[in-house]
């Protein structure tokens, strides 16, 4: 069994606001967990974690990875690692107009270079925007 209460670095610790839609989902999970405890009082293993199997035992990290892979296959989507969702989130936050410092803070990176060099890449629209802007700036040199 795998359990760890440690994070990779100090910047991973701290309070973060939770969007209300996620908070509602977490509350639903906790209500279901409370029901599970009541229905199997002698068999439920309460280890103090929120994401557990129906009997309270901790979900192994590989379980999530395997389920994610099956979800992609079932829906005809290309294979990506579960961790790659962080990269997608970073790109989407950039697309929504958040600055790099905000994205770094949200992703809990210790160094902004990690966010800039690894997690956020320019999408094709951003590249076209740069090209069009440069085209407009240099157009008057065409004479």
Describe this protein's structure:
The chain is mainly α and 143 residues long. Helices cover 54% and strands 0% of the residues. It has six helices and no strands. It has helices at residues 20-39, 61-74, 84-95, 100-107, 112-119, 124-138. Helix 4 crosses helix 5 (112-119). The longest helix is centred in the first third of the chain and has 20 residues, at 20-39.
Radius of gyration: 22 Å
What ranges have pLDDT less than 50 throughout 5 or more consecutive residues?
none
Q: Label the overall shape.
A: elongated
Helix content: 40-55%
End-to-end separation in angstroms reads 71 Å
Mind describing the biggest β-sheet? none
Kindly state the mean pLDDT as a whole number? 85
Could you give the order of the helices and strands?
Answer: HHHHHH
Query: How many strands appear in the DSSP assignment?
Result: 0
Q: How much strand? A: under 5%
The structural class is mainly alpha
Distinct helical segment count: 6
Task: Record keyword descriptors for this entry.
143 residues; mainly alpha; 54% helix; elongated
Helices and strands, with pairings:
Elements: H1 20-39, H2 61-74, H3 84-95, H4 100-107, H5 112-119, H6 124-138
Helix pairs in contact: 4-5
Brief account:
The chain is mostly helical and 143 residues long. 54% of the residues lie in helices and 0% in strands.
């Amino acid at each position: 069994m795998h359990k760890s209460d440690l994070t990779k670095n100090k910047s991973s610790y701290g309070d973060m606001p939770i969007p209300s839609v996620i908070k509602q989902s977490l509350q639903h999970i906790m209500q279901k967990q409370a029901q599970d405890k009541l229905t199997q009082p002698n068999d439920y293993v309460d280890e103090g974690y929120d994401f557990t199997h129906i009997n309270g035992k901790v979900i192994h990290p590989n379980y999530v990875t395997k389920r994610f892979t099956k979800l992609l296959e079932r829906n005809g989507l290309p294979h990506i690692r579960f961790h790659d969702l962080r990269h997608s989130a970073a790109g989407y936050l950039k697309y929504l107009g958040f600055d790099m410092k905000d994205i770094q803070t949200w992703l809990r990176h210790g160094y902004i270079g990690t966010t800039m060099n690894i997690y956020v890449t320019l999408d094709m629209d951003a590249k076209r925007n740069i090209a069009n802007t440069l085209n407009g700036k240099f157009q008057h040199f065409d004479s």
